[in-house]
Amino acid sequence: MLFEFHIEGGNFNKAGIASSEIKKALKQLNVSPEIIKRVVVALYEAEINVVAHAFEANAFVEIDTEKIHIRIIDLGPGISDIDKAMEEGFSTASPEVREMGFGAGMGLPNIRKNADVLNIKSVVGKGTEVEIIVLISAVLNSE
Ligand SMILES: Nc1ncnc2c1ncn2[C@@H]1O[C@H](COP(=O)(O)OP(=O)(O)OP(=O)(O)O)[C@@H](O)[C@H]1O
Ligand SMILES: [Mg+2]
């Protein structure tokens, strides 16, 4: 099952559509609440990062019996130092973004905590690709 979303930079009103659609789909598929929560948190943080830091993105979410595979490919400023961006509390969020309640520098650390796989590739001045995989629990697979 493949879902595709377009995410607009700067538009906080529309932020979170992908994560709420995927939440619905996973519920319908009877995926465990623990897995749903991890996927929703990771996808939401990645969506918000596009809204807060980039111009636009395409998000692809593939659900199969073993995993939820998320790819978010944005056009934006890119990330010059990914290790630093991954640190808790590091943020370059603008005053406008902070006013919306974001910019604690906790999004990427939160994605790392919730994902089984997190890969970030970025080219400064071009954009960023974030790949997230959450594995569906062995308990479900063995049933
Ligand atoms: N898609 C992106 N494009 C460009 N820069 C990004 C992107 N995602 C993250 N960053 C950079 O990495 C930093 C850390 O991201 P992170 O999500 O951890 O924190 P934040 O978005 O600043 O704040 P929070 O997520 O807590 O609201 C950002 O401040 C920004 O500099
Ligand atoms: Mg963030």
Structure description:
This protein has 143 residues and is α+β, with helices and mostly antiparallel strands. 38% of the residues lie in helices and 28% in strands. The chain contains six helices and five strands, in the order βααββαααββα. A hairpin with a 3-residue loop joins strand 2 (56-63) and strand 3. The longest helix has 21 residues, at 33-53. The chain is globular. The two termini are 21 Å apart. Bound molecules: adenosine-5'-triphosphate (ATP) and magnesium ion (MG). Residues 45, 49-50, 52-54, 74, 76-77, 79, 85, 90-93, 102-109, 128 line the site of adenosine-5'-triphosphate.
Question: How would you sum up this structure in a few lines?
Answer:
The protein is of the alpha+beta class and 143 residues long.
What's the oligomerization state? single chain
Q: How far is the first residue's CA from the last residue's CA?
A: 21 Å
Mean pLDDT: 95
Shape call:
globular
The largest sheet has its strands arranged as: 1-2-3-5-4
So how many helices? 6
The helix/strand series, from N terminus to C terminus, equals EHHEEHHHEEH
Write the layout of secondary structure elements.
Elements: E1 2-8, H1 17-28, H2 33-53, E2 56-63, E3 67-75, H3 82-85, H4 95-99, H5 107-114, E4 117-123, E5 127-135, H6 138-142
Antiparallel strand pairs: 1-2, 2-3, 3-5, 4-5
The chain binds adenosine-5'-triphosphate and magnesium ion.
Adenosine-5'-triphosphate binds next to α2 and α5.
